[in-house]
Amino acid sequence: MDDDEYYEFCMKNPDLRIEREANGEIVIMPPAGGETGYRNSDLTGQLAGWSKQDGRGRAFDSNTEFFLPDGAALAPDASWVLKSRLAQFTKEQKRRFLPLCPDFVVELTSPSDRLSKVMSKMSEWIDNGAALGWLIDADRRTVYLYRPGKEPEELVDLDHIDGEGPVEGFRLELSDIWDGL
Q1: From 141's CA, which of 38, 157, 167, 173 has a CA 20 to 30 Å away?
Q2: Cβ neighbour number for residue 18 with a 10 Å cutoff
Q3: Residue 81 and residue 125: Cα distance in Å, rounded?
Q4: Nearest-5° angle of CA 21, CA 87, CA 103?
Q5: Above 90 in pLDDT, residue 113?
């Protein structure tokens, strides 16, 4: 199905968490449990607070889906896009799934995730234009940094992680994410 058909399919099924892979396969995901929801809320709150202070871009939560250049339609757990990139879209376009790859994406693993699958998704974000990606595996207290042209970097048991590139100046405090509920 094309982007318009996919969007309409999602609008007709508002209670489902749906993504489309680049090969056109539709994926329906389970809702987040309490601990994953708490961790995601903490992450999104920190990113949104910094974004408002910084003023260069906009933060998005896990409900925001993006049409990517490779044909996928994905929703990261948190993301950030420069305002200058958003300025090209009409009000109507901004109300739908944005046809761009965020500058920065974060994915949190949840109990239903296979790490290898989420790692592949992170690589897809980078391949589609994200300048920086963080994959957070809270149960292992590990952050995987994804950057274009580089192998993922594995960081273990950090107190915080500092942004770079598009999110220079952002610091994500990890203690509540590690601790969970």
Answers
A1: 167
A2: 16
A3: 13
A4: 45
A5: no
Residue position matching structure tokens 């203690």: 175
d(CA 125, CA 117): 13
What is the signed CA dihedral for 16, 17, 20, 21, rounded to 10 degrees?
-140
Domains with residue ranges and CATH for the chain: 32-179 (3.90.1570.10)
Q: Is 149 helix (H, G, I), strand (E, B) or coil?
A: coil
The mean pLDDT of the chain is 96
Q: Is the confidence at residue 30, as pLDDT, over 90?
A: no
Residue among 129, 126, 157, 162 at smallest CA distance from 143: 157
Fill in the DSSP letter of residue 147.
-
Q: What single letter denotes the amino acid at residue 124?
A: E
- Concatenating the DSSP letter of every residue in 43-111 gives HHHHHHHHHHHH-SEEEE-TT--EE-TTS-EE--SEEEEEHHHHTTS-HHHHHS-BSS--SEEEEE--T
